[in-house]
Amino acid sequence: MSGHRVARFIFCTMFVVVSTPWKAHGQRNDHIEGFRRFMEYCAGCHGDDGKGGSKVVSLATTLSVMTRSDAELTRIVHDGTTEGMPPFGQIGDANITAVVHYLRIIEGKSAATSIPAEAPVTGDVNAGRMLYLGKAQCSTCHMIRGRGGFIASDLTSYGRSRPADAILQAITTPDTPLVPSSRVVSVMTRTGLKLTGVLRYEDNFSLALQMKDGRYHLLTRSDLTDVHYTDHSLMPRDYGTRLTSKDLNDLVSFLIVASRSGRRDR
Q1: Which is higher by pLDDT, 20 or 190?
Q2: DSSP 127-190
Q3: What is the largest CA-CA distance in the chain?
């Protein structure tokens, strides 16, 4: 199967969830809640950095999105568009508000909650880098500045617009909520072959799994005897116990510093 055909399978239809930003009130839970809702409603298509792909608009950098008034964005998310975006008024005003709060952070528009380029970190960045590349095995799946795995999201700019507590929460409770595009699925074929990978695409007739080594398997449902959907991604769920508090602080600090403009990971 060609790379172009695989790409067509894994891209989602346009899904733009934007609305009016929250009023800043200085509480740390605001941006954490926004991060959760963005992961739940938007990241499956637009990526956890909001930059989308070749067939999905970037929510973080597209001028036509960034320059719309709050009233226009509210109407778009509630009513949908004629270009293909369905209405999402059913998710409720509170969720829409939380999503757009986080959207404004990744756009760099929320001065009250976004992280400055030189925000201080409290951990040991070098120790965090060693954890990332070694004991924690983050680089097996994640890439930073062209180095590392590619089955999970690119973390090059991950720490640039996220608060430290949100990054820590994503590490220790990675599937809260579970991003649909990262769900692990196990299948059994009629020939007795068992495959476990990330579900990249499915319809009534077929599904596509990506293995940890990057290979794709396009499978026909009629050739499968069992399909098991898990409630988790490939991200380890035991970092909260496997790593010490210092380890976690060091790792978070590394992700923040590594995402700063102009820095090169070595």
Answers
A1: 190
A2: HHHHHHHTTT-GGGT-EETTEE-SSS---TTGGGSS-HHHHHHHHHSTTTTPPGGG-EEEEEET
A3: 59
Per-residue pLDDT tens for 154-196? 888 888 767 888 899 999 999 887 877 788 999 999 999 999 9
First to last CA, the chain: 35
Q: Which CATH superfamily is domain 125-177+235-258 in?
A: Cytochrome c-like domain (1.10.760.10)
At 137 the pLDDT is 94
The position carrying tokens 């590594």 is: 258
Which CATH architecture does the domain made up of 3-107 adopt? Answer: Orthogonal Bundle (1.10)
Residue range(s) occupied by CATH 1.10.760.10 in the chain: 3-107, 125-177+235-258
- Cis geometry, peptide bond prior to residue 120 (ω within 30 degrees of 0): no
| 8 Å CB contact between 199 and 185 | yes
Which segments of the chain belong to CATH 2.30.30.100? 184-229
d(CA 104, CA 22) in angstroms, rounded, equals 9
Domain 184-229 in CATH 1.10.10.10? The answer is no
Q: Is this prediction's pTM over 0.85?
A: no
Residue in 112, 87, 114, 113 with CA at minimum distance from that of residue 19: 87
